[in-house]
């Protein structure tokens, strides 16, 4: 942007995101009973109920995903541990697999950014990934033992409507790319065009249009 310094822009984005994260966390706390109902519905059926007064439109999965993606602006900030922890809380509370994966990706990017010049190539590409794999394995084992809802949802991939719908979509990705002359259909239009190509997804029956709202 002409006339806008890079550092000033980043500071502005960080300031707004702090307010956004604070609002999302406070809204989750204020609607704790609705969050619990949403967790139960998501684990059992894949249906994604809405939480009242959400900041981002599109449901709890998109809200968790936006929070996770925006943490990337804090990778070089001393506040990064706090915002990444906040993102983990949001994704865990909303049982958002996408939000959780995005949070982990940002965490890995931050690790690479901060350590790529500190170690030899052998250590960085072999030893550190091995240690990271061991750490993730231990963390997953502990999470499974604690029976965390978000972990249960990961383990249900392929057995509930949310993941089944995404797997159904994958079968039509190449047809969709070819049919759109490799240009895509535009944000918000993909599902309608894929349905015309033959997509019949269980996820559409339990999508945002039919989501029950917690009281």
What would you say this structure looks like, in words?
Helix 1 packs across helix 2, helix 1 runs parallel beside helix 4 (80-93) and helix 4 packs antiparallel against helix 5 (97-115). Residues 203-215 have low confidence and may be disordered. The longest helix has 26 residues, at 121-146. The protein is 67% helix and 0% strand. With 215 residues, the protein is an all-alpha fold. It is built from 11 helices and no strands.
Key attributes of the depicted protein:
mainly alpha, disordered C terminus, 215 residues
Short description:
It contains eleven helices and no strands. By secondary structure, it is mainly alpha-helical.
Q: Radius of gyration, rounded?
A: 20 Å
Major β-sheet, in short? none
User: How does the helix and strand content classify structurally?
Assistant: mainly alpha
Written as H for each helix and E for each strand, in order along the chain, the element string is: HHHHHHHHHHH
- Number of DSSP helical runs: 11
Quaternary organisation: single chain
DSSP strand count: 0
Write the layout of secondary structure elements.
Elements: H1 6-30, H2 32-45, H3 60-70, H4 80-93, H5 97-115, H6 121-146, H7 149-155, H8 161-170, H9 173-179, H10 190-196, H11 202-205
